[in-house]
Amino acid sequence: MRVSTAQFYLQSSQQMSSKASDVNEQMAYLTSGKRVLTAKDDAVSYGTLAGYKDDLANIEKYKRNITQAESHNSMQEVAFSNAEDILNKIKNEIDPSLAYRRSCAHGVCGSCAMNMDGKNGLACTKPHSEIEGDINIYPLPHLKVKKDLIGDLSGLYKQYESIEPWLKTNTKVETTEILQTKEDRVKLDGAYECIMCACCSTSCPSYWWNGDKYLGPAVLLQAYRWIIDSRDEERETRLKKVADELKLYRCHTILNCTNACPKGLNPAKAIAEIKKMIATANV
Ligand code: SF4
Ligand code: SF4
Ligand code: FES
User: Fold this and answer.
1) How far is CA 152 from CA 144, 145, 207, 265, in A?
2) Predicted model pTM
3) What's the rounded Cα separation, in Å, for the pair 48 and 64?
4) 254 CA to middle of ligand 1, Å?
5) CATH fit for domain 153-281, picks 1.10.1060.10, 2.60.120.10, 3.40.50.1980, 2.70.40.10
6) Ligand 3 neighbourhood includes 110 CB (under 6 angstroms)
7) Which of the following CATH numbers is that of domain 83-150: 3.50.50.60, 3.40.120.10, 3.10.20.30, 3.40.50.150?
8) Is the CB of residue 190 less than 8 Å from the CB of residue 239?
């Protein structure tokens, strides 16, 4: 999608300006009194004015449109701080029907994930300094598109649900905080920060072709996050659940996922760790 509409508005603005000045010229001429000498002249001038009736009625509208067009034109000079700003500007001022997800604007919620100039990322953290000239924005790859930049993530969310991403304990009574050592807490670093934006899964060729069966890097990183949590008591069941030819072993360590992650996480490493745990635990 090209976001530059300046040329279009420039042309529209020029057309509208010349139309408005034509009508104004006629108005000035007819009201200057030079022509209205007789009743007949009066009738002629009235007829001429009536002929311009539509244009006259539209003159205010033209003026509004010109002002609007000029302000759209100024898009070229506005400094956007990031790609999401550009989309907001288009939605607010040019095309309110444009559909995309966004919420936090700070790289925290993961909802604005999209493909920008061929790379998955978060629109709100794609800085203006990285945008040279036109920017091409697409939905995340290989998803069904619901509308414009909104990909269908329902399959991924179902897979996320399938790994039961919550603390599971059988022995502990959860009436107070369940503590863990600092060392155990540190093990979660690099996993708990995942915002489930899906940039990794939608850049993974294995997920493109087997997304209905292979869990993909985002969900496997989440599975790993719960497998290694010292407070969780379902480690073995969790490992057994993902130890599957299709769910896990479709990962061929191509590392697209790690390169795509806007939070700098390493889902490929987490997948490798799960494989190692399964091999050594003989699950
Ligand atoms: S390393 Fe695995 S999960 Fe990551 S892109 Fe490659 S196949 Fe997909
Ligand atoms: S691992 Fe990174 S790219 Fe994948 S869902 Fe989490 S935050 Fe997004
Ligand atoms: S809007 Fe939340 S991550 Fe971009």
Assistant:
1) 5, 6, 14, 23
2) 0.73
3) 25
4) 5
5) 1.10.1060.10
6) yes
7) 3.10.20.30
8) no
Tokens (6 digits) for 201: 């899964």
Contact between residue 189 and residue 155 where contact means Cβ atoms under 8 Å apart = no
Quote the ligand 3 centre to 201 CA distance (angstroms).
17
Tokens describing residue 7: 């040329």
Alpha carbons 191 and 206: distance in angstroms, whole number: 21
pLDDT for the residue 33: 60
First to last CA, the chain: 48
Assess whether pLDDT exceeds 80 at residue 18. no
277: tokens are: 């745990």
CA distances, 84 to each of 48, 189, 259 (Å): 50, 28, 21
